[in-house]
Structure formats: C-alpha cells, structure tokens
Please model this.
Amino acid sequence: MTALRAFLLPHRVVMIAVALGLVVWAAVAMRWDWIPKYADLALLGIWRTIWILVVSVILGFLLAVPLGLAQAVGPWYLSAPARGFCTIIRGTPLLLQIWLLYYGLGSLFPQFPWIRESELWPYLRQAWPYAILALTLSYAGYEGEVLRGAFAGVPKGQIETAQAFGMPRFTTFRRIWFPQAIQSVLPTLAGETILQLKATPLVASITIVEIYAVASRVRQDTFIVYEPLLLLAVIYMIIAGAITLLFRWLESRVPVKSR
Amino acid sequence: MEHLAEALGLTQTLELLSLSPPGWGGNLLRGLANSLKIAFGAFGFGLVLGLLGASGKLYGGPVLRDLLAIYTTVVRAVPELVLILILYYVGTDLINQAAAAMGYGRVEISGVAAGIWVLGVVQGAYATEILRGAILAVPPGQIEAARAFGMPPLMTMRRVTIPAMLSFALPGLANLWLIATKDTALLAIVGFSELTLETKQAASSTRAYFTFFLSAGALYLIVTLFSAAAFRRLEGWARKGQPSLKRGTT
Model:
C-alpha cells in the first residue's frame, strides 16, 4: 500500500490520466472495425508466436548447456568448435541465418531423391522446421556464451567437495554445478528470452503466419497503417511482461545464498 | 589462383562473386557500404540521444525522468521490426505533412536517412541505459569538483564526465555497435537495399543460395571481428592509467 502511495506522485497521476485519455481517444477516433474479422487469425498468430518462442527457447537452452560446458572446461577440440559456433551466430544477423537455412537448405534438399522419399519430407517442405531450427541455433549461440561464464563462475571448491564425497560426475553436475550456474544467470536469461521474443517476427519473412504477419496482412488488406501496428506493439509488451513475471517467479523459487 | 579455383571446383562460385556485372560481388559490396553507412549514422544518432537521455534521467525533473523511463522500457520490449515500421510511417507522415504545410508536394525520403532515423531511435534507448550506468560509475567528487571550479555544465560534460565515464561505457557501446550492424539487416524487410536484401536478390536470381548467403555472412563476420578488435584497442586507450583489474592467477 505504501509502495503504491510512493508510486502515485502528483505528476504520475497526471501522466496516468493523460495516458488513459490517449487510450480513450485511440479507441474512439481510430479505426478498429477490422478487429472482429481478423480476431481468429490474430489469436492463432499469438499462439504460434508463443509456441515458436517456447520451443526454440527450450531446445536452444538444451543445446547451449553442452556449448557452454565445452567452452568453460572442455578440451581444445571441443571448445574451439563451440567458440567458433558462438562467434558465427553472434556475428551475423539472424535474418541472414533464417534465409540461409530456409532458402539454402530448401533448395538443397529436393536435389536428393532419398530425402524426398523419406518420412520427413512433408515436414521439410514447410517453413516452420527451418524457423525453429534457425531460432534454436541463434538462442543456443547467445546462451552458450552466457553459460560459459556461468559454468566457469561456480567456485571450484563446490565441485571438489562433491567429488570428495564420492559423488558421481553426472550427479555432481546435476545437483551442484548446474543449479549454481543457472542461479547466477537467471536475470541474464530473462533478458535474452525477451530478445528471443523480439526475434520471432523475423520468421514472418519466410511465410510463417504468426502475429506480426497477421498485422502485416491487415495493413495490406485494409490500408490501415497505425492501428494494427500499435496493437501489435501492445501484444508484444504484454508477452514481454509475462516473460519478466515468469522469470521473477523462477528467481523467487531459487533459495538465496546467505552470505 | 585460377588453377587453384579450378582444382577446388570453385570456378563457378568465383564467377558469381566477381565484381564486374555478370557477377554479383559489386552488388554485395554496395549493400555492405549501405549497411555500414546506416550503422554508423544510427550509432552516432543513438549516442546523441543516449547522452541526452542519460543526462535527462540523471539530472532531469521527475516528469522528464518518467517519460524517459517509458521510452527506454517500450523500445526494449517491442520488437525492432515493429518499431521500424511504426517509426518509418510516423517519420514519412510527419515530413510529408510538414512539406505540405510549406507548400511542397510529397517528398521521397531516402532509405539511408529513414534507416538512420528508425535505428537511431532504437539505439538511443539502449545507449541511454549504458551511458546512465557509466556516468553513475564516475566518482561524484570529480563532477562536483568541476562544478566547484565554476565550469559550465556543457564543459563539465565534455572535459570531465565523458572522458571519465568512457572506460565504463565502452564495453556496452561495443555491444551496441555490433547490434547496430546486425539490425541494419532488418531494413531488408521494409525493402531497403542493404547487404542482406542485395544478397537475397542475388541468390534468388542465380539460385546459388549457399554461395551468396555464406559470403554475406562472411562479410558481416569480418565487420564484427574487426570492430571487436577496434573496440578492444579503444578500451585499452580509455583505460590508460587505470589500475588493471586482472589478478596474476585468474
């Protein structure tokens, strides 16, 4: 309650009033009559955006763990390729990577008859496997770098203690090393996941109809420019806010080290 | 050289990438030049916005501070692509209205200027946060001393705050510059012919997708690696005289 009162300074009350006024003005004066027609498509688009985000973040994270480990403690023949992969992913634009995979692999695969005859071919002809692959590799590249620092930052004594207790290597990793590394980078991961959300509209350029593509279609069909874009910005802000809350909840579940 | 290419089966690739017209190398390099132009401009514009924003956030009144907080939060939560579209339409609308008010007809806006404007506003939000953090890291006594000597605010900024904060800001700014170079690729979606779009056009008209996308990737990578090295040197220069944080063992 006191926090709310501290937040509601006089000028903030005025600003909130102005913001509400703007919202009311936008609702009355701008054109929103296209919404009912596109509502179903928009919901499908939001669902696809979230689906792509969740799948690519989970798969990318699973790939980032070995990448980070290889760079932090691996022998040179593992750490050098891992570092090269991260440098390449982080050094080139994601749009280029998406187009390389979609157009490049998409034009390469049909040349091999055994791929065309395989079970996977119906999927490989669609766009979303390439979108997921590109976004997953991108997330893995950025997170591999983050996790390298996290794994290297866990105090050596912790791992040595576990080994001294006779813990098997994998158990040490699962119960000691990994949790402490993750705990230290949770805030970074939250930021990176929001960056990943902001990267998802790029897959609209390879014909995937997610929420950004829906907004573009509204713009092309009806020549209404600002309204769909503003609504799109609000939708992304809500999803970003949800990600922030999710990670805050995760952080609150991690026991804080008492120093 | 030619024998080597033939031996490796790369003759066709080299023909495609040659600089004179049947090859597309010239187009790629022009695209790269455009990309770099926009990246430089947007980074510079973003730095100016960031410096203003950081001073506003640190020394401004409560209203200005809240407005800047909204600016940085919104820009960092909404995808660049959406912001680029919004800012592009807003910018062209405003300029056309201004031109109409002054009695001119519709104005064509150059792609470079539009790109610098939209990416600069995005960069400004990130630069605001980086520079604010860096200014906060400067020992306040230095700035207070400058004020006590009666230095005007701008001169304090130029002679004390900026040189002292540079070493704290440079790592973040290096990151921001890399983001700027990569974000220029987003302008491909709004149809501006920078490196990525030139590459796609070359690739789809020759059907040699891998050749062109990989060479564009190499160009981007060269830019990234070179600027990373340049920023490392710059940081070394800005840290001159500061005690190293490195310890002997770690």
Notes: Residues 210 and 255 of chain A are 37 Å apart (CA to CA).
